[in-house]
Amino acid sequence: MEATGEGVAAEGKLKFSRVREFVAQIPLLSWLLGALVAVALEYFIGTPFARSLGLRKAPMLFGFVIMLKKPMLFHSAAIYFVLIYLLPILVVARVSAASINRLAGKLLDYPLMISTIIHLGLLYVILHWWSDMSLYRADVLRFTMIAVLVTLSLNLINGYMGEFSCSHPGFMALGAYASSVFTVGLFADDRLFGAALLPHWLGPFFFPIALIFGGLVAAVGALAVAIPSFRTRGDYLAIISLAFMFIVKSLIENLEFVGGPRGLGDQPGWANRPVVFAAVVLGIWIINNFVRSTLGKALNAVRDNEMAADAMTVNTRQTKITAFLFAAFWAGVAGGLYAHALRYVNPGTFGIQKLAEVLAMVYFGGLNSVYGSIVGACSISLLGEMLRPLELFKWIIIPLLLILVMIFRPTGLIAFKEFDVRKLVQPKKRG
């Protein structure tokens, strides 16, 4: 029996290695081309094909919600997913791999920015086309992208710095309210702030300033955590940051000029799909450059051995405070995007549940990894939506999944992996 078990395990590893080799040999541009074909298929024939399978309309989240809500339609939803998404992506990616590899090789003669813009442009077209089929998809996409930015900013502290912070919902709240006061006070007729001070048409041009303002307010608030926390060692940051989150939440609840516990609404809808996409791409690029810079390497040295880093002339306290404020800034920007995507913000949103959600994304995806933050945010966000029909049971399934990941992959699915754009866009070697 033991030998049989070892044989099954070896066979499983062999199959996994073959799948991994197949995926590794296909360039990213081919996968994107396959996804574009799949989305085009759904856009043009998705609804009639779904009705031919007994479904009322094209599934909103790849058929998984239908599988859980109406188990009798499981086979129809599975067939739809395979024929509309899985099969076209695999076939197109495999068939186009050779020609796309040659194209990728030619693109290497040009600046890296050209290839990056082509990949990002194709990705945006795919996301735009996919989410344009329903308002629900558009909202899921926007909030998932915002979750990527929040997760990545928290990973700076909990992953790259090696500390444990619980203050990110507080930073998001500061950014959300500060940017909302900026835009609503200047460009909207509101019951709290009165008539608009500036013409509404100017607002979209000032929106980036509002987001930066929200980020700066969050960074200033982070000083209240950083200054006392980084004078000490151990778990004090977790305790102080958790207290900070509750202080911010309670403070906003008692500030009537921003709506108090009722919340603040009337935010202009400027956090649309292209704006959120551009902000998240910019955030990923800047944060990735930060962690690959000299300061980022110093941060890793502090995480691995603070005393040794200090002995090597690294100013450990300044390094940690700088990274903490930098992470808080991006959490504040994400909070501003969240408030203007939802067009309403409430202090109750930024509590324990939000903290648990963001921590789950960080540790599920992987510590010390930009890849991990993207995978963790997208996985947990989409999984939460797919399991929505299960209601309360989804909060049993997701924690169990996290427990399994922590047992078998303690650092997350994709941990300690450097995000290198050049490796993503370069041609793949064929075995």
Tell me what the structure shows.
This protein has a two-stranded antiparallel ribbon. 73% of the residues lie in helices and 1% in strands. α8 (203-229) runs antiparallel to α13 (316-342). The mean pLDDT is 86. The relative contact order is 0.13. It has 17 helices and two strands. With 431 residues, the protein is mainly alpha-helical. It has helices at residues 2-24, 28-52, 64-69, 74-107, 112-131, 135-160, 168-187, 203-229, 236-253, 273-292, 294-304, 306-311, 316-342, 352-365, 370-386, 394-408, 421-425; strands at 264-265, 344-345. The protein has two domains: 2-131, no CATH class; 135-423, ABC transporter involved in vitamin B12 uptake, BtuC (Orthogonal Bundle), CATH 1.10.3470. The longest helix has 34 residues, at 74-107.
List keywords for this structure.
ABC transporter involved in vitamin B12 uptake, BtuC; mainly alpha; 17 helices; about 425 residues; single chain; 2 domains
In short:
The protein is mostly helical.
Summarize the SSE layout with pairings.
Layout: H1 2-24, H2 28-52, H3 64-69, H4 74-107, H5 112-131, H6 135-160, H7 168-187, H8 203-229, H9 236-253, E1 264-265, H10 273-292, H11 294-304, H12 306-311, H13 316-342, E2 344-345, H14 352-365, H15 370-386, H16 394-408, H17 421-425
Antiparallel strand pairs: 1-2
Helix pairs in contact: 2-4, 2-5, 5-6, 6-10, 6-13, 6-14, 6-15, 7-8, 7-9, 7-13, 8-9, 8-13, 10-11, 11-13, 14-15
